[in-house]
Design a protein that fits this description.
The chain is mainly α. It contains 4 helices and 2 strands. Strand 1 and strand 2 form a beta hairpin.
Length: 163
Amino acid sequence: MPMAVKGEVIAGKPPLFGPASARAALGMEAETYVARAGEMMNRARAIVRDNRVQAIGLFEVKRFRLCNHFSRYRIFKHIQIFNLVIQHAPASSKVVAKAMKIYCIELGDTFSRYTNRWIGLKSNDWTDYRQDMLLTTEMMQASINAEIRAIRQLLMISSLYAD
């Protein structure tokens, strides 16, 4: 028999992420991380697409900044979202959160390998770098876009979770 829903509380227990305002704040923080990563990648892709080889010296610093940004985002979503869902949500949501967490780790490893692959980038590597950079950042953008949609869904249905 389904539990009766009374506003934000099911069976006398608060929702997983707290009140709607807390879920909204988590969602906004995740959206901010994704938007910032997108901005960083878009600026770098514009430089690479314009074949501005003379800007090659900037890319190492920018790659490490983006890598650090992705690391902060990973810590945020794992601790603030995925771990809570895995610990307290129904089985179907746990499966989703576990899969998202594993995929996130794999994606982070992929980006770290990309970052490390181009340490000490030289102008004679430009053609290979350009292709790798465009493919990697496009894949990362598509992945974080899909992930933020899934995070929105986890947060939206979290009002139904009870400990």
